[in-house]
Amino acid sequence: MKHSFITRHRRKAGMAPGSLFYTGDEKELQTHMHAFVYNSESVEEADVARIGDIDPGTKGKICWLNVTGLNDTKTIQDIGQTYQIHPLVLEDILHVDQRPKLDDADDSLFMVLKMVTLPSGTDNPQWEQVSFIIRKNMVITFQELPNDAFDSVRKRLRENAGRIRKSGADYLAYALMDALVDHYFVFLEVLGERLESLEDRLIADPGNAGSGPGLIHHIYQLRREMIFLRRSVWPLREVVGGLEKTGSGVFQKTTLPFLKDLYDHTVQVMETVELYRDMLSGLRDNYLSALSNRMNAVMQVLTVIATIFIPLTFIAGVYGMNFEWMPELRLKWAYPAVWLIMCTAALFMVLYFKKKRWL
Amino acid sequence: MKHSFITRHRRKAGMAPGSLFYTGDEKELQTHMHAFVYNSESVEEADVARIGDIDPGTKGKICWLNVTGLNDTKTIQDIGQTYQIHPLVLEDILHVDQRPKLDDADDSLFMVLKMVTLPSGTDNPQWEQVSFIIRKNMVITFQELPNDAFDSVRKRLRENAGRIRKSGADYLAYALMDALVDHYFVFLEVLGERLESLEDRLIADPGNAGSGPGLIHHIYQLRREMIFLRRSVWPLREVVGGLEKTGSGVFQKTTLPFLKDLYDHTVQVMETVELYRDMLSGLRDNYLSALSNRMNAVMQVLTVIATIFIPLTFIAGVYGMNFEWMPELRLKWAYPAVWLIMCTAALFMVLYFKKKRWL
Amino acid sequence: MKHSFITRHRRKAGMAPGSLFYTGDEKELQTHMHAFVYNSESVEEADVARIGDIDPGTKGKICWLNVTGLNDTKTIQDIGQTYQIHPLVLEDILHVDQRPKLDDADDSLFMVLKMVTLPSGTDNPQWEQVSFIIRKNMVITFQELPNDAFDSVRKRLRENAGRIRKSGADYLAYALMDALVDHYFVFLEVLGERLESLEDRLIADPGNAGSGPGLIHHIYQLRREMIFLRRSVWPLREVVGGLEKTGSGVFQKTTLPFLKDLYDHTVQVMETVELYRDMLSGLRDNYLSALSNRMNAVMQVLTVIATIFIPLTFIAGVYGMNFEWMPELRLKWAYPAVWLIMCTAALFMVLYFKKKRWL
Amino acid sequence: MKHSFITRHRRKAGMAPGSLFYTGDEKELQTHMHAFVYNSESVEEADVARIGDIDPGTKGKICWLNVTGLNDTKTIQDIGQTYQIHPLVLEDILHVDQRPKLDDADDSLFMVLKMVTLPSGTDNPQWEQVSFIIRKNMVITFQELPNDAFDSVRKRLRENAGRIRKSGADYLAYALMDALVDHYFVFLEVLGERLESLEDRLIADPGNAGSGPGLIHHIYQLRREMIFLRRSVWPLREVVGGLEKTGSGVFQKTTLPFLKDLYDHTVQVMETVELYRDMLSGLRDNYLSALSNRMNAVMQVLTVIATIFIPLTFIAGVYGMNFEWMPELRLKWAYPAVWLIMCTAALFMVLYFKKKRWL
Amino acid sequence: MKHSFITRHRRKAGMAPGSLFYTGDEKELQTHMHAFVYNSESVEEADVARIGDIDPGTKGKICWLNVTGLNDTKTIQDIGQTYQIHPLVLEDILHVDQRPKLDDADDSLFMVLKMVTLPSGTDNPQWEQVSFIIRKNMVITFQELPNDAFDSVRKRLRENAGRIRKSGADYLAYALMDALVDHYFVFLEVLGERLESLEDRLIADPGNAGSGPGLIHHIYQLRREMIFLRRSVWPLREVVGGLEKTGSGVFQKTTLPFLKDLYDHTVQVMETVELYRDMLSGLRDNYLSALSNRMNAVMQVLTVIATIFIPLTFIAGVYGMNFEWMPELRLKWAYPAVWLIMCTAALFMVLYFKKKRWL
Question: I want to staple D316 with a disulfide (CB 3.0 to 4.6 A). Which of A38, A317, C156, E328 is the partner?
């Protein structure tokens, strides 16, 4: 699958700010809502048909509402009205070419992030926009695609593993973001393996013209993936780094070390991307040098062969001339002598080229 | 249409600061004024012949005065006197090689921005300078060209769509800037499509010498457009980012989220430009590699052919010599033997080159 | 005229700090002083022979003393003593390889700037160092060369044009700096025209080897000019930007908008230089690509021709052999058959190369 | 030994934050604990079997606990419980793809650093993660590998050399970090020697195609080592620079000059890495230029030879034609005349090429 | 003389911090002390055998102690004890691969700088480390080599020239640093002259293959010198810039303008180095372009010649065939006709190549 890197904004051009319109590609997917309501004692899990059906955060419970598929503008608008979400925030949720960002309202945080997942059995990354609304007792997440990216969190919720059921909505939000960042590591590992296999191919067969065009194309494609990855990762770091500094009080003090750990992970993702870019550009230089080296070696050998035979052919041409008066032609030892001259000349040239290390 | 990137300042050199002189190319266009006066109940729209004819901001109404065509210095000066505009501001309005900037006076904001529009049915961007004067009840905009760039705002004003008629002059200014930034997205989309089509051509026909010179020229032209775009976009971001921090009180608190949204859009424009530059430079490298690869492959095959035939021709030349005493010439089996030798030599060379993967 | 970019400091090495010595090239020029003394009612203008002859700033008048030619150390020292100028400042005035800078004393500002002028009828820029000493009622300027760079200011002083005669010494200093920055625009325009003409030549004749060496040399020279220009412009911006922040009270509040305007101009100069550098490097890349493209195309066509004829020549060589027993030679249809074979082979190769798009 | 630069995170993906899992390669190594307990009068040194066996910091003594081999998660967990270490810190200790970092708790510092050692008799660097926990009377270090990196500190402890026994745990931590940074210098020296030997090879034999492919490969490998080194050194500097600014009071005032000295050393390591990168890229450019120069020289000489003989062969070919009416063939002086013509032509071409300096 | 850029630290590795060991190359030089004791009335100058012999700063006199040759660790240690110098400072003085730095103690400043001198009659720069200890009435300088770098200061001290005898130890320190920075200008001038002469050679003989390898080697060597120079100059600027901000009160207010002047000089050194680097990289690009241009021109001409003669040789080959039935051979006008055909073909090709501008 090819990325289209064209920013799609035109569809909105001319509309009033705040108009709701899903700008992504997944237009056939139905909008689907799934909710967890839990505290340390119990957990309830249900698909939600109408937004009015769930009762978030009563009796000190935490509610996580996960919305997948953003095409049903009506449902999104209902959610917006039920939970008093600002129209520009709703627009950002649907406008999936959004840059990762963090908005900090009084008692609510809004985040847009990019998630990359690798559908099982394939190496093609699937990019989607994930939006978070984080409140005191509630987390709402909006995904473009239904996938298993947050399944590790769901499992921990169901099994009451770790501290997730004992903590608040802020820890849930952290756990979801941590899962999201983990998927970057999975993708980085795939990229790293592709990079290493390119490197192995280059070392095994430096400057092989046969595999050449393929190799440069792979390098170019990898570079493209890196550019996309980098474009998501830099603002991701800003967003995670900004979380600690929000004054909204959504994140409690006990969750801060986890945020710091998450921030360290995003920095590591970023540095690995930069490292890979550096490796890739070195690989590219090395490949081009090897290719040019090989080409030079080939041309040189071939040219040397031609250069040896051209003067010999000239000599043969001379004695192929039909002049009546060519005294050499009559001499009995002339023919072997010419052979001797030609062999001597060839030998001399070979030795000279050897000495000059041209051969 | 070719951009001229020469900065035209000479015409002004030697004049006293504050002299009025239009430095742009559109010298034939007549200066034309158009005014909207509105509040949430009513809207009046009229062409304005003399600046004295309009009565801005009476009875709590908002006035938007749009001036197109900057050649009529007299009219500009009249506007300046009527609304007490600083001479240096008037000079900046007419000096259309101005860098985008924001000036913050006591109760008035002055902005110079660059707008790019695509006249319908063409891909040639049209750049013009747009200046804004924003006051409590009034917005004055100065355009070099009469075009439909602000028609979406006009439509919303006439149809009372969205919140524009219910809000103040600051929201009007925001809506106009938002329209201006939207045109950058339209232009970016055109550039993105051109970039993708170049990429497709390159993948379809890597290193095709026939299409080659054209491709590199397209890449160069696209790069040029990017340089111009970038030059406008960087200060645009500064200007929009600076709006929030002005102490002039022109922008009310309710408009600030919209300004932040606008700022996010300008950042996105900027990052897309950087992304495209990155893609373009990768594309260029890839193209040059493919070209050089292809050239190498061609030269190699051709040189190999020559290298095989040159020794054979030498052998033929030897037996074309006219020496009287060449015993081989008499032997009946000599001719087929020479053929055999030549075929064997050719076969050996072909196999050797194959093994070395030179063929 | 070639720039010498060698920094000349040696002449001073070993001398005590504060020693006066002119380090520039214009050693033959006589030092010459010219003074304007004016207020809004009257203006007096005179050449000054001895520094004691002028009476600066009496009766609320403003005095502008312009010194051209810095070779006469004695006169410079006299000025220094008369107006209590710090020895290090005098040294900086004479040390004309100085970097542009701003020194802020109690009631006096000292500035070193670089000025570029284009002597009429030529495109060779002339660089000189211009130093400013700005006090409450007085401006002293030191130029290396007598030229017409400040004539526009003189004209406005004589004709009482604009606000110059009504304002103080700070506005005079601003007007002089504005004239200096205007000359950068004139120079930029010349550079821009040279850049555009190079671009036109390249588009008209991409990769023309004939004009090639010339083109690359022009690009190199233009790049050199840019490097010099850039070296002056970056600190110029710092100096002008620093003027607003001086605490010396030399610049009055009414002059500040003009300083801001001047600062915007220096930023524009700087950005234009960066733009030109960017254009130039793109032009260079494009030129080298075009050259290499053209070279490749030529070599390819030529090699293809050789490759077609070499096998044919081999066939002809075979039937030029003198073996007694070559049955083909006797056959009547052999000669036309060989022609047929050779033509078929040639045709086949041409078609093959066409198909491969090598021809 | 090849570095694998793939970031290994996947094993953890899906686990709850705080799960303990060693992510490194040294899975066979047994976890081993060694403790020093000392003050200025006495020093005790012992292998520790169970963590409960040591009594840290009683009676004002300092305790250094060194743990090598991180595979035994149980032991690490015991240490964590005994000394109340935060679960995220324990996770960072085991997660050995960690970026160097500094965490600052109330009365305890946690550091992750990278150490490079050169096993004796080899030039292959061995990278490992070293974690420090520094408290008032105790330092705990975690190494992946058992090696002699800290032997210089152990020796000074045993011999009561320098001030180490007289100072507190903070000086011990400094001494350990100083030893760690010293190993970077040892590695830098090896890299510097490899760089110099490459330079010498290049100067001795510029553009030697024989040694060529090897040279570029060595350059590429050295560049790779630099990239890894740089990746560790940049955050190392941050960590050491951050130590002075911690508010935990672990570092006493008398130790601060030593920290500053250590910081200067890390800056020097960093600048040397940058210098080597710069040298290496210069070396690479120079090598490629030399290679291309040499190739050009070879091709030129060979092409000149071919160019001289091709016209001569043509002349010989003409007089090898078998036309019945070729009057020149009958002339007695024709054959020597042809020789004369051919020699003259050859001489002329040689002189022309010499004049043009093509030969 | 070749720089060795290997950082020598290993000799120290394993030693306790604060151990004294000279790491430089000048191991044979004897340590030598020379002292000036002066005030505005008198000056005494003497070689010092034992450190106890001098009586610094009694009776308000200023003492300058200059130590050359750092091999005698004992003497250095004596100086350290006599003047209470911190052991880490002494170590930095002897560790001559030190990075330039400034340490600010209570009533004492410690500086490490790099000095470059050009021994008379040679262009080989000699680098050494110079350390300064500056106190209220005393300056101690440590040089690796005995040379005349500070002779200009000594002369001014002896002759009571300028303000040096009338000022304090801070002015003496400034004068010494000023002399040190002056030597950078001398070196820069030498580098500038070498750069200009390379440029002249390139303009005089663009792309001359004969002088080629030499030119690229000179460029590479100059680049190397720049890298070393730059490595010293960047921290030099930091050190001089930091002097003004020290709170130690060593520098009096009257000396501050001189420090600012010195700082401007170091900035100028730094910018000149950057300018030269820029020029050098432009020169390198230009040289490589010229070389490649020239190569292309040569190859093209040679290939064109070959391409013209190869088809002609084929025609001659055809009529050298020995078929019995070749009717053309019998025709009397056939031979001149073949000549005509061959000349026409050659002329046509020459014209075609001329038109295509390949010749």
Answer: A317
Task: Locate the domains of chain D by residue range.
Answer: 32-290, 298-355
Contact (CB<8Å) B325/A338: no
Rounded to a whole number of angstroms, the distance from the CA of D175 to the nearest CA of chain E is: 8
Q: Kindly determine whether residue A282 and residue D213, on different chains, have CB atoms separated by under 8 Å.
A: no
Q: Residue B249 — pLDDT band, cuts 50, 70, 90?
A: confident
In this complex, the chains that touch E, judged by 3 or more CB pairs closer than 8 A, are C, D
Residue E84, class by beta-carbon neighbours within 10 Å (0-12 exposed, 13-18 middle, 19+ buried)?
exposed
A302 neighbors A295 (Cβ within 8 angstroms): no
Q: Are D68 and D26 in contact, with CB atoms under 8 Å apart? A: no
Instruction: Tell whether domain D298-355 is in CATH 3.30.1950.10.
Output: no
Q: What is the pLDDT of residues D265-284, one digit of tens each?
A: 899 899 889 888 888 888 88
What residues of chain C lie within 8 A of the CB of E264, using their CB?
Answer: 98-99, 101
C299-355 to CATH, choices 1.20.58.340, 2.40.50.140, 1.10.3720.10, 3.40.50.11440:
1.20.58.340
Q: In which order are the strands placed within the sheet that holds A126-134? A: A43-48, A32-38, A62-68, A138-143, A126-134, A109-117, A101-104
Task: Give me the residue from C10, C313, C322 closest to E313, CB to CB.
Answer: C313
The CA distance from B58 to B55, in Å, is 7
> How far is residue A319 CA from its own chain's centroid?
68
C35 vs E357: CA distance, rounded Å: 62
pLDDT of C57 reads 56
Across chain A, which distance is largest between two alpha carbons, in Å?
123
Nearest Cβ partner for D303 among E10, E302, E309:
E302
Q: What pLDDT shows up at residue E30?
A: 86
Contact C302 E303 (CB under 8 A): yes
Q: Are the Cβ atoms of C16 and E293 closer than 8 angstroms?
A: no
CATH T-level topology, domain E32-290: Beta Polymerase; domain 2 (3.30.460)
DSSP E2-50: PPP-----TTTTTSPTT-----SS--SPPPEEEEEEE-SS-EEEEEESS
Residue range C134-140: average pLDDT?
Answer: 91
Lowest-confidence pick of B350-359, C5-14, C320-329: C5-14
Bridge partners, residue C117, by sequence: C126
Angle, CA of B341, B346 and B347, to the nearest 5°:
100
Chain B residues lying within 8 Å of C178, measured CB to CB = 17
Tell if the CB–CB gap between E216 and D304 is shorter than 8 Å: no
Partners for B (CB, 8 Å, 3+ pairs)?
A: A, C
- ipTM value: 0.72
User: How many CA within 13 A on the CB side of residue B32?
Assistant: 13
Fold of E295-355: Methane Monooxygenase Hydroxylase; Chain G, domain 1 (1.20.58)
Collect all residues of chain D within an 8 Å Cβ-Cβ radius of residue E105: none
- Which residues of chain E are modeled with pLDDT < 70? 1-18, 55-58, 206-214, 247-248
pTM of the model: 0.79
Percent of chain B's residues with pLDDT above 90: 26
Q: Which of B30, B61, B64 is nearest to B46 (CA)?
A: B64
Q: E289: which chain C residues are within 8 Å (Cβ-Cβ)?
A: 216, 288
Residue A10 has a pLDDT of 43
- The dihedrals phi and psi of E355, each to the nearest 5 degrees, come to -60, -40
B293 vs A291: CB contact, 8 Å cut-off?
A: yes
pLDDT in the model for residue E1: 34
Tens digits of residue pLDDT in B29-63: 888 999 999 988 889 898 988 887 776 656 778 99
Strand-pairing partners, residue E128, are: E115
Q: Is E321 exposed, middle or buried (0-12, 13-18, 19+ CB in 10 A)?
A: buried
